[in-house]
Design a protein that fits this description.
The complex is a heterodimer of chains A (473) and B (255).
Chain A (H helix, E strand, L loop, with lengths): L5 E10 L7 E8 L4 E5 L6 H8 L8 E9 L2 E2 L7 E4 L12 H11 L7 H11 L15 H14 L4 E5 L10 H11 L4 E5 L3 H4 L5 E5 L5 E5 L1 H14 L21 E12 L2 E12 L3 E5 L6 H8 L7 E6 L1 H4 L11 H4 L3 E4 L12 H11 L4 H14 L15 H13 L5 E5 L7 H16 L3 E5 L3 H6 L3 E4 L2
Parallel strand pairs in A: 3-8, 3-9, 6-7, 7-8, 13-17, 13-18, 15-16, 16-17
Antiparallel strand pairs in A: 1-2, 1-4, 4-5, 9-10, 11-12, 11-14
Helix pairs in contact in A: 2-3, 2-4, 3-4, 4-5, 11-12, 11-13, 13-14
Chain B lengths: L9 H17 L3 H17 L4 H25 L6 E5 L2 E4 H25 L4 H10 L5 H30 L7 H29 L18 H23 L6 H5 L1
Antiparallel strand pairs in B: 1-2
Helix pairs in contact in B: 1-4, 1-8, 2-4, 2-8, 3-4, 5-6, 6-7
The chains are: A alpha/beta (473), B mainly alpha (255).
């Protein structure tokens, strides 16, 4: 495998139906074998640039300007030289079994069949994916899926490997492992990583490149120099810079009257419990962080507490201050009755979108509460501004970037001012600016005597809310 | 030891299942369907199909087949002595025979089709369709990858119901709610399809070069045995039917 050179000459991209350019006038040279950490605030076109280098940005997705070259060849014609790993790990899976999936790229590139098994074995070994080749791809954990995706592009013999937030959706304990596997496996290839968390990669890359939203390169150079000279500016732009904590922790707040109480609660789907014996109380003005490793039923607990899944056993009681005249069991409430009482933000924002534009999406909740047109419009506008979604008001929610979608899904829940807000991993993959924005919003909600129940891996977030801890195991 | 059927190529199984269905719709009579059902069933057992698993997979067919037979018996073309007459219902000797033939036919096609295709490996079938039947790789692999996504539809549907309840839009009438949610599922599926297409392209799918296949798909002795056995079973069914004079090609029924 020969490492690939990547070059942008006055390159730009405008997504279909948007007024602003995502990237404009970009000039960038990446030498063969170089390792680059690509930074920039949410919406700076980082994912778009990776897709364009991989030659998978379709003409129907927008308009381009300038040139993108891979080894002096047009990027669109250099398929196979550049391997792209998409943001969500499961988005990269094509086939049903691990071995078949890794082989998929080789087959497409016309690698002789006799050579493929060897390549597959070497690639899976290089990323440390120690499962049988016939293991179902659906049965892999997030970290294993990420390794599988990298193995898939390694087996192709790609000269450049581009990774879009490879550790954003991982359990924090799995992050260093996956990073080290990626670094070891891509030794000798050109590597470009997009990631918000600088500390994970700074000691392992040759150069940091910072993109400017709607522009080109804002800063670039050796990691230490860029961080020293640009650190505060980058932090202000939302990049996670070691040493810059966006928001100080609140002192833990005891919270006031109980709103929602679980006692010996067992949660699960279809009557089969995945977690039992949960005792927890959500209090007015207090936050509760639900922690624990993957797969212990945190999300199922959240959905149950949010009045969306029936409980399997035990008690879940909405106290009068929350129930406000309704019976104590939230699963018995109507959908519209739930709205001002318990809001819920799902782990996958896409499931929650019901309207064709961001503005209409925000209006759905207030309208269901039968607020007047003026009130609906005021609240919508307020949410657009607070969560920095104003420029996207007329965009389709499905076309937003991952970070923007997350912000929108939180905003839709806040728009109905629920007394209890249940959120599932609200800070996954967020830049520091959005993170701080979320902390502010949740903090305000707490100040207004609402309660926040957050499923999270993010200890810093729990600290920032001064949250009580509930650890499921 | 693997069952003999597991050693056959999925393409051979698919073609044999199609052959059974085609031959059995040529004529509606008790003899050909009965012989095919009995011999076909024995063939499957010999090939290592487990009766219990087959019965479970057959459940929907077992539930529906009697109704198909009953409908024909009650409303089918009248011929021969009238056994019962009540309004539109005319049960005659002829319609009763037709009803029984229909019942056996549905069962025979069901047993052979489900027995042969049940538990078939989608990836190997796609390999075979592209390499042996030379169907376009773009089509076959696109369908295969999309097929994997089908498994996610159920999960998506459940998540959508919960999400719509959380958004306060789940109180409308059932029909409207269903329509709204079905549309949301469609939007989500299209979106997933788009992401899948990008992931496939990112790995060189649809590129200009000639594609290779990591898993060669070949026809072997097991496939020859399967095809031969199927020819014998179908031949015996048709011969028995013709010799007993019960062979009635479908076209005659229409006339």
């Amino acid at each position: 495998m020969r490492p690939a050179a990547l070059r942008a000459e006055g390159w730009g991209w405008q997504h279909a139906g948007r007024r602003e350019w995502a990237v404009r006038g970009l000039d960038l040279r990446i030498e063969p074998g170089e390792r680059i950490l690509l930074l920039g605030p949410s919406g700076a076109g980082k994912s778009t640039l990776l897709k364009a280098f991989a030659g998978v940005l379709g003409d129907d997705e927008g308009d381009g300007a300038g040139r993108l070259l891979v080894d002096d060849q047009d990027a669109g014609a250099a398929r196979g030289r550049v391997g792209l790993v998409l943001q969500a790990p499961d988005a990269n899976i094509v086939l049903e079994r691990v071995g078949d999936d890794v082989a998929f790229g080789c087959e497409n590139l016309g690698v002789p069949a006799t050579e493929i098994p060897g390549r597959v074995a070497r690639a899976t070994a290089a990323v440390g994916l120690l499962v049988p080749q016939d293991r179902s791809t659906a049965a892999l954990s997030g970290g294993q899926q990420q390794r599988l995706a990298v193995a898939g592009v390694l087996a192709m013999g790609a000269g450049a490997v581009l990774l879009d937030e490879p550790t954003a959706n991982l359990d924090p304990r799995g992050v260093p492992e996956v990073r080290d596997a990626v670094l070891a496996a891509t030794a000798g290839a050109t590597l470009v990583v997009v990631e918000h968390r600088v500390d994970v990669w700074r000691d392992h890359v040759d150069r940091i490149v910072v993109l400017e939203p709607g522009g080109g390169v804002l800063a670039q150079g050796p990691p230490d120099r860029v961080l020293r000279e640009q650190g505060s500016a980058l932090a202000a732009a939302g990049v996670w810079i070691p040493g810059f904590v966006p928001r100080a922790a609140r002192s833990p707040r005891p919270g006031g009257a109980p709103l929602l109480a679980a006692e010996a609660l067992a949660v699960g789907r279809d009557g089969a419990a995945v977690a039992r014996g949960i005792d927890a109380t959500a209090r007015a003005g207090g936050a509760l962080a639900v922690l624990g490793p993957n797969g212990v039923g945190k999300s199922t607990f959240a959905l149950t507490a949010a009045g969306l899944l029936p409980r399997v056993a035990g008690r879940l009681e909405a106290l009068p201050a929350l129930a406000d005249g309704l019976r104590a069991d939230p699963i018995r409430w109507r959908s519209r009755e739930l709205l001002p009482r318990i809001g819920c933000v799902f782990q996958q924002p896409e499931h929650q979108f019901v309207a064709p534009t961001v503005r209409q999406e925000l209006a759905v909740g207030p309208r269901a509460l039968r607020l007047g047109e003026q009130a609906v419009s005021d609240r919508t506008t307020e949410m657009l501004e607070t969560l920095r979604l104003g420029a996207l008001a007329d965009a389709n929610p499905f076309t937003l970037s991952g970070g923007e979608q997350r912000r929108l899904s939180v905003a839709t829940a806040l728009a109905t001012a629920p007394k209890v807000l249940v959120v599932d991993e609200p800070t996954f993959g967020q830049d520091a600016l959005t993170w701080a924005g979320l902390v502010d919003l949740f903090g305000r909600l707490l100040d207004e005597a609402s309660s926040v129940l957050a499923v999270t891996h993010d200890e810093r977030f729990a600290d920032a809310l001064g949250a009580d801890r509930l650890v499921l195991a | 030891m693997t069952a003999p059927l597991d050693r056959t190529n999925p393409v051979a199984r698919l073609l044999v299942a199609i052959a059974f269905a085609v031959v059995l719709v040529l004529s509606v009579d008790v003899v050909s369907a009965g012989v095919a059902l009995v011999l076909g069933g024995l063939l499957l057992l010999a090939a290592g199909v487990r009766p219990r698993g087959l019965a479970l997979r057959m459940l929907p067919v077992l539930l529906v087949a009697p109704f198909a037979g009953l409908t024909i018996a009650l409303y089918g073309a009248a011929s021969g002595g009238v056994l019962l007459s009540w309004g539109f219902v005319h049960v005659t000797e002829g319609s009763l025979r037709l009803g029984l033939a229909t019942l056996l036919r549905v069962l025979a096609i069901g047993v052979c089709g489900i027995g042969l295709l049940g538990g078939i490996d989608a990836t190997r079938l796609a390999d075979g369709l592209a390499q042996l039947l030379h169907l376009p790789a773009r089509f076959v692999l696109g369908a295969l990858a999309a097929f994997r996504l089908m498994g996610l539809l159920g999960q998506d549907w459940r998540a959508l119901s919960l999400a719509r309840r959380a958004r306060g839009v789940a109180d409308s009438g059932q029909a409207r709610r269903f329509a709204g949610q079905a549309f949301a599922l469609l939007v989500l599926s299209v979106r997933r399809g788009g992401v899948l297409a990008t992931a496939m392209e990112a790995r060189g799918f649809g590129g200009p070069g000639v594609r290779t296949w990591a898993r060669p798909s070949r026809l072997g002795r097991a496939d020859a045995v399967l095809v031969l056995a199927a020819v014998l079973v179908l031949g015996a069914a048709v011969a028995a039917s013709v010799l007993t004079g019960s062979w009635h090609p479908v076209a005659v029924l229409g006339g």
